[in-house]
């Protein structure tokens, strides 16, 4: 088994693009709330948000780091679609089993606590 370390090489230009994308996304969010505070139409404030986020994604796509991240996000969505989700009946059964286990554990811990309380305070220390 090889223990080779993997290094990612990132240029300062890529770092600048990622920082610019973050600033664009923040500007979109700030623009949304600023326009909403001025009682502008909802379409205008939402447009500012969408424009800021689209501009951020566009800038990210132009950097190697951003492309890697966006490809990772697409792969994550693709993998999530492969998951076999339980049916409503299965989810209800599993939830019921979990609740039953919690109740049994709560009773066990309560009983253990009462037994230890009786042994320590009544039998060993003699406090009543």
UniProtKB/TrEMBL annotation:
The keyword Phosphoprotein appears for this protein: no
Transmembrane segments: 16-35, 42-64, 91-110
Keywords assigned by UniProt, alphabetized: Cell membrane, Membrane, Protein transport, Translocation, Transmembrane, Transmembrane helix, Transport
Subcellular locations according to the entry: Membrane
A Pfam entry, by short name: SecE
Similarity annotation: Belongs to the SecE/SEC61-gamma family.
Functional summary from the UniProt entry: Essential subunit of the Sec protein translocation channel SecYEG. Clamps together the 2 halves of SecY. May contact the channel plug during translocation.
Name of the protein in question: Protein translocase subunit SecE
Organism the protein comes from: Massilia agrisoli
Taxonomic lineage of the native organism: Bacteria, Pseudomonadati, Pseudomonadota, Betaproteobacteria, Burkholderiales
């Amino acid at each position: 088994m090889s223990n080779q370390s993997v290094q990612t090489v990132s240029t300062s230009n890529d770092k600048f693009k990622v920082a610019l994308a973050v600033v664009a996304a923040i500007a979109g969010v700030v623009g949304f709330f600023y326009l909403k505070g001025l009682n502008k139409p909802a379409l205008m404030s939402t447009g500012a948000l969408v424009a800021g986020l689209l501009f951020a994604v566009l800038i990210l796509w132009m950097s190697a780091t951003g492309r890697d991240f966006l490809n990772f996000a697409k792969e994550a969505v693709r993998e999530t679609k492969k998951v076999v989700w339980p049916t409503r009946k299965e989810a209800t059964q599993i939830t019921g089993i979990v609740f039953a286990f919690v109740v049994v554990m709560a009773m066990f811990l309560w009983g253990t606590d009462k037994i230890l309380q009786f042994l320590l305070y009544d039998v060993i220390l003699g406090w009543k």
